Amino acid sequence: MRRRYLGVAVALVAVALLALPGVAFGQDLALDRIKDLKGSIGEAADAVNTTWVIVAAVLVMFMQAGFLLLEVGFSRMKNVGAGVAKIFVNFSIASLCYWAVGFALAFGGAGELWGDSGFFLDVGSTAAEAGEQFPFVGLYGIDPAAFLFFQFAFCAVSVEIVWGTSLERIKCSAYVIYAIVFSAVIYPVISHWIFGGGWLQVNIGMQDFAGSTVVHLLGATGAFAALLLLGPRRGKYASDGKPRAIPGHSMPLVGLGVLILWLGWFGFNPGSTLGIFGDAAAGIGNRFAEVVLVTNLAAAAGVIAAVATMYGLRRTIDIGMAGNGAIAGLVAITAPSGYIEYWAAPIIGAIGGIIVVCGVLAIEKLLDDPVGALSAHGLAGIWGTLSAGIFTSPRFAEFNAVGEGGLWYTGSFDQLGAQALGVAVTFAAVFVVSYAVFALIKATIGLRVSPEEEDAGLDISEHGMYGYPEQFISPEEYPGGTPAAPAHAPATVSAIGAKRPSEA
Amino acid sequence: MKKIEAYIRHDAFEPIRTELLEKGFPSLSIAEVKGSGRQKGVVEQYRGSSLTVNVRPKLKIECVVEDKDKSIVVETILRHARTGDVGDGKIFVIPVEQAIRIRTGEEGEEVLQAHSGAELPA
């Protein structure tokens, strides 16, 4: 695997040598340097790959801001602060749990069900040392810390998806407990099955490049379990059972959130190449750049398809649904992004966009999912995973060494079957465990705030402060809040100009 | 003394205010109000569900004048607030018992509308 970027690395080193002042000192010294550097060509390439993985991980981390704005924008003003606290708390819990336990379960060893070594990343600091316990680290030559941080950022995205359905009514303490279980056990075990050399990846050959199933369907399944036990927001359904709109307070924030997620996705999918080198000998370019393009094509097609579908069904160009279309296109392309040719990307994204609109409209009748997480991450995640079974190009299946070409190329349903099995098993496993955890929380400390607290809003009832204080505290009671002009303000021209009616 | 209380469309306010000022009636109050009437509510479409907002925003103008000036004010409001469509609003004329200027304690019709230049701070 190392060999295929040897040529590129040699070129890099040659350029680096030109810039080295030491070369001028004498030929012998220069020759020595070349020898040293040739010995470290592999290291140079590894360092470049590690850099890309960290850049990608930071982009994925930035998606937290996207989720924050998306969820806050879709909430009412009385619940905006709760969304902020939630992101900070969940991200931090996942940071610690994934380092302590999660990463070892996900990638520590090649067990079929879970990994069992490398807790607290106690594995030595070089890729070679760590490779003994983390086969992937050795294979890709990435620093263990970089690999952990990248994978953790995915886990943190997944845990945020869980809370999309629970906005405006869940107790803060409920998500603290679930986040621990999720980031220490649920997410790592499933990601081991599909990313970390577990049974779905190795034995079944399931293809999920960056996590349509691992990250998105997994998060949405947790969200589904939470929603079933939580129930709808107060007032969501009229007495005749018809759903009523509870408009979120800011479409500009939703839009900004979606754009940040869209940007973050350029770390999410292209980062999952875990390196920047293609295989020139096999006619394969630098995959990370190609995956960037594939990802963007799908997102764009998702927006256009969602807007068109909504217009066809309801004759409105729905603002939130345009954003959901982008997310659905991105979620759908996540699994196949490393396996397909360009032409398939808009098709996959567009179908994702149609699915999210139909999904939201159908689910809305029964379940109160304020941001459409079940559709955008769940249904689009299922579609994305299955789409790899249709559109995977044989050359990329071979390059990634997972599974085989899709139905379109091979005429065989084998890969599609593997994808479907992966989806079904993941959904079942995550749903059962998540439902049990949420049921336990509900039976002990409770899952939902009281009706009075819900009416008052989570900001004041759960956090003791308002996210937008001036919306809820009248100016007269707000320190320095009265917006009146001073008592002896200069008289206005119009007032002086007034005449007595008798004079007029 | 009469209080004229008018519920109008927001965009009618500025021409009414300007003309009343020109005619010597600078003193008035406004308030943002919401109400329902013969005009239908607004239906908001949001993610596939709808929400009917049955009360619409209107502006309330309150203006107290001497009995003889009542018709000037009413006509001014009518002229600018009438579009001919449902939702133009209504005017109510209410008798007022007493008027007191807080700053000086003066009472009576004196305090209602006009200000001589000398009474105003520069």
Describe this structure in words.
The complex is a heterodimer of chains A (504) and B (122). Chain A is mostly helical and 504 residues long. Chain A is built from 22 helices and no strands. Chain A is globular, with a radius of gyration of 27 Å. Residues 17-25 of chain A have low confidence and may be disordered. Helices cover 18% and strands 33% of the residues of chain B. Chain B has one domain (2-114): Alpha-Beta Plaits (2-Layer Sandwich), CATH 3.30.70. In chain B, strand 3 (42-46) and strand 4 form a beta hairpin. The A-B interface holds A 243-247, 310, 314, 316, 318, 320-321, 357, 360-361, 364, 372, 488, 490-491, 494-504 and B 21, 23-26, 44-51, 66, 69, 72, 113-117, 120-122.
List the secondary-structure elements of chain A in sequence, H or E. Answer: HHHHHHHHHHHHHHHHHHHHHH
- Count of individual domains of chain B: 1
And the CATH topology of one domain in chain A? Ammonium transporter fold
The Rg value of chain B, from CA coordinates, equals: 18 Å
**Most extensive chain interface and residues per partner:** A-B, 30 and 24 residues
